[in-house]
Each structure stands twice: as structure tokens, then as C-alpha cells.
Write a structure and sequence with these properties.
single chain, alpha/beta, eleven-stranded mixed beta sheet, 25% helix, binds hypoxanthine, EC 2.4.2.44, purine salvage
């Protein structure tokens, strides 16, 4: 990202609605393997403006891997091996906070993890020592600010705060679960924010989430959540997300 001194490629993990990145000037595509298995898709290498980028489709291309079956360890390790040290995770989310309705963009600053049973650490097996990484601030402050500045510069409404509640899925939540999550302090709900963020941290990579709200969370509107509503919000909001990515990489 442009304001960072580091000239390593930036990793972009695209989620629902972002299986390809149209503005990317593609220079190569590589199917890779890692010690943790196969990533969701080949790595697509290219340039966004002046910035080298490695794009990875989280759910595969075509979109076929559900959130609880994504091999997050292979994805993060593959990006690391490709030289990536800063990762932007693009995530479709449900909105809990009253200002975070469909098509709204959020750069969250905190996480509460409700996922279970997902391989969520590289530190297991035959270890020399036990490691507990610091995870007080799961998202990189500088990368967050770059995205927020990009949104402001292009006039895209964007919330610069938010607690991302990561749920197991693949089902959506009950209304009572959302009430509980709101009580816990969650502003957004999604299924892919964890363990992606912590695995990046374990590898020493900077990680930031770019969240696109695609529906009101369960019980937050007068209707049940439909795929039409989700696709409509993606159509409306994804150009802002892509614009933020392009602008934050420029220069
Ligand atoms: N809940 C969980 N994950 C989601 C949602 C939701 O409402 N919308 C998009 N991803």
C-alpha cells in the first residue's frame, strides 16, 4: 500500500462478490502448494497502479468453498511465500450497527471470534517452544488509515470503526444470536474474518479487513435474508470497494 515503506507485493484476499479483480493488470497465475495444503485458488499476480499485488479468491474461482472449509492456513502461507507482507481481506458481512446497512463499507478495528473447530494456528505439532502471539489490535493501524483515506478521497461513505463478529456458518444467525452479539459489542457479522486475521499475525504479516455490508443481520430488518438482497448490495457496493483498493495502491 502506497504510504508504506515496504515494496513487497500486497496480498488481496477476495471474498463473496470479488472472485476476480478487474482493474488488475495480470502478469501471471500460479497454482501453488504449501506445507499446510492447497490454497483456495491459484495466486494471480499483477499490478494495481504501481503496486505489485497478489490476488487470491478465498472461496475459489468459481466460488465453491464454504467459509468453514476454506484452508486459511494454506492461503496465508501461500501469500507469505509469494513475498506478501501486507494483506487486505475483503469480506462480505451482515450489518448489526444501525449505520451499517446494505452496500455500506466498513474498515473494522476489532474482532470477536465465535468460530469453532477451524484449524486456526500454525503453532501446533512438534514445537520447540510454546508461542502466544499478541493480538490486542488485530488489524494494522496504518493499512486501515490508508483504506479510510482512500474512501474519503473518492467520496465513498465508509465507517472507520467496527467490531467484526466472526461466526462459524455456513448458516446465517438466529435473531437471538444477533441480539447477543450486539450485546457483546459486535457491529458486523461475517464468517471469514477468522482465523484469517490471526494466521496473518502469526506469520508476522500486516492484515486489514475491508468489509462490504451485504445484508442487515438476522432480525435487524422486517424481512428474512435473501440471496437477491445480498447480490443487490454486492452490485451496489463493490465498485466502492474496488475503487478503495485501486486508490490505496496508487502512487
Ligand atoms: N451473517 C454472517 N455472515 C455473513 C452475513 C451475515 O448476516 N452476511 C454476509 N456474511
Amino acid at each position: 500500500m502506497s504510504a508504506t515503506a515496504e515494496r513487497c507485493p500486497v496480498g488481496i484476499i477476495g471474498g463473496t462478490g470479488l472472485t476476480t479483480l478487474s482493474g488488475l493488470e495480470i502478469t501471471g497465475e500460479r497454482a501453488v502448494e504449501t506445507a499446510w495444503g492447497t490454497p483456495s485458488a491459484p495466486l494471480v499476480e499483477g499490478k494495481l497502479g504501481e503496486q505489485e499485488v497478489v490476488f487470491l479468491s478465498r472461496h475459489g474461482n468459481p466460488h465453491r468453498i464454504p467459509p468453514h472449509e476454506v484452508n486459511y492456513r494454506a492461503n496465508l502461507r501461500a501469500l507469505y511465500d509469494a513475498g506478501v507482507r501486507t494483506v487486505v481481506g475483503v469480506n462480505a458481512v451482515g450489518g448489526i450497527h444501525s449505520e451499517m446497512g446494505p452496500a455500506h463499507i466498513v474498515v473494522p478495528d476489532q474482532i470477536i471470534d465465535y468460530t469453532w473447530g477451524r484449524p486456526s494456528t500454525f503453532f501446533e505439532g512438534e514445537l520447540d517452544e510454546v508461542t502466544h502471539i499478541d493480538f490486542t489490535w488485530p488489524y494494522d493501524a496504518e493499512a486501515r488509515q490508508i483504506l479510510i483515506d482512500a474512501a474519503r478521497a473518492q467520496g465513498t461513505p465508509c465507517s472507520d470503526f467496527g467490531v467484526y463478529g466472526a461466526t462459524q456458518g455456513p448458516r446465517l444467525e438466529t435473531a437471538a444470536e444477533i441480539v447477543r452479539m450486539e450485546r457483546d459489542g459486535c457491529d458486523l457479522v461475517g464468517m471469514t474474518g477468522m482465523p484469517e486475521a490471526v494466521l496473518a499475525a502469526e506469520l508476522g504479516m500486516r492484515y486489514v479487513c475491508l468489509g462490504l455490508v451485504v445484508n442487515w443481520a438476522a432480525g435487524k430488518s422486517d424481512h428474512i435474508i435473501s440471496m437477491e438482497e445480498i447480490h443487490e448490495a454486492i452490485d451496489k457496493g463493490m465498485s466502492g470497494v474496488k475503487g478503495m483498493l485501486e486508490m490505496s495502491m496508487a502512487g
